[in-house]
Each structure stands twice: as C-alpha cells, then as structure tokens.
C-alpha cells in the first residue's frame, strides 16, 4: 500500500496527452529521440527535477523494442515517480494491424501508375514508391499524464504556508496568477 497506491498519483482511469508516430523504419530511431526531446523540453520548462531512464529489456512490454521512462521528483513519495514514457515498437503493432507503405525506388521518387478502378471512371492514379511494401514502425509517447503532472507541480512548488507557486510557463494559462493560495476567511 502507501501513497503511491492511491490518490491522484495512482488513479484507475486518467486523462493524458499521447503522441503517436507512424514512420518508415529508417526514421524510427531519430523520431524516438525527437519524442523524448519534446517530453524533456516540456518538463524542463515547467521547472521540474526529473531523470530519463533507458529501460532494460526485462522491463519492456511485448510491443516495445526500446522504451525511455521519465520520472519527476515527488516530495510526497520521497522518491522519483513516472510521469512520462516513450516507446519505439518498430513493426510489432504494424504487423498486427497490417500497416504497410511502399518505399520510394532507389535513387528517385518516381511514381507508379495504379490500375484504373471500375468506380474511378478509367482514371489512373499515381502511387508513390515502386517496390515491395514494407511494414511501418510505430512509436508512442506520453506528453502529459495529467494527474501525475499535477502532483509533481503541486508538491514541488508548494510553499511553507500551503500556497503553490505557479510555474512561470503556466501563468498565461492561469490568467496571470502567480500563486495559488487558500481563499481568505470572511469575518
């Protein structure tokens, strides 16, 4: 049990902003790094103390070829807690979903003509590429797991009086509010 097994950190169902990429196999490693860069930029701008973990193979799910977790310092837990991850699933999901592409022929981007369809009125359409189809690579990354990010912000920016300093990058979205404080009692 404990703090990590209940409350806002461990809700059964939660909102998140997820990033998905469908890519040619030769692009997936670079795009995986780009997803990680987007996540780290987000958490850096929020002023969070975090670390990026290159997960060992034993901790990967079946689809993932490589996965990075991002953990932020959680004062309430007195440890780092996962707030984001980014996975390169190579062609695992594409094989199950039969998602393919036709690569451009070597040395050019010429298009082949596809045969006219019966419904198309005899028109021929251009099809990119020219060779045998290949499976795409799929990648996914959590840009923001909303409850965990709220926990990280509240715990890391809480002041001794209980107020919370709003990270500067969020202030325009908070109507310019700099501090979240308890309402003053009316007498």
Number of helical runs?
3
Q: Give the strand order, joined by hyphens, for the main sheet.
A: 1-9-4-3-2
Largest sheet, in brief, is:
5 strands, antiparallel
Question: What is the 3D shape?
Answer: elongated
Q: What order do the SSEs take from the amino end to the carboxyl end, as H and E?
A: EHEEEHEEEEEHEE
Mean pLDDT: 84
**Beta-strand segment tally:** 11
**Radius of gyration, whole Å:** 23 Å
Strand content: 25-35%
Structural class: alpha+beta
Distance N to C terminus: 42 Å
| Low-pLDDT residue intervals, each spanning 5 or more residues | none
Percent helix, as a range, is 10-25%
Protein described:
The protein is an alpha+beta fold and 187 residues long. The protein contains 3 helices and 11 strands, in the order βαβββαβββββαββ. A 5-stranded antiparallel beta sheet has the order 1-9-4-3-2. Strand 3 and strand 4 form a beta hairpin. It is elongated, with a radius of gyration of 23 Å. The chain starts with 15 loop residues before the first strand and ends in a 7-residue tail after the last strand.
């Amino acid at each position: 049990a404990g703090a990590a097994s209940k409350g806002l950190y461990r809700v059964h169902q939660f909102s998140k902003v997820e990033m998905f990429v469908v890519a040619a196999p030769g692009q997936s490693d670079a795009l995986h790094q780009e997803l990680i860069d987007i996540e780290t930029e987000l958490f850096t701008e929020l002023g969070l103390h975090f670390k990026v973990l290159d997960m060992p193979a034993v901790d990967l799910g079946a689809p993932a070829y490589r996965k990075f977790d991002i953990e932020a310092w959680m004062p309430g837990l007195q440890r780092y807690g996962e707030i984001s991850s980014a996975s390169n699933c190579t062609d695992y999901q594409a094989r199950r979903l039969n998602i393919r592409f036709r690569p451009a022929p070597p040395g050019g981007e010429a298009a082949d003509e596809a045969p006219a369809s019966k419904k198309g009125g005899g028109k021929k359409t251009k099809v990119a590429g020219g060779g045998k189809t290949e499976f795409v690579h799929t990648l996914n990354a959590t840009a923001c797991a909303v409850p965990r990010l709220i926990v990280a912000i509240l715990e890391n920016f809480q002041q001794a009086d209980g107020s919370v300093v709003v990270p500067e990058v969020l202030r325009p979205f908070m109507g310019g509010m700099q501090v979240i404080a308890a309402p003053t009692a009316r007498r």
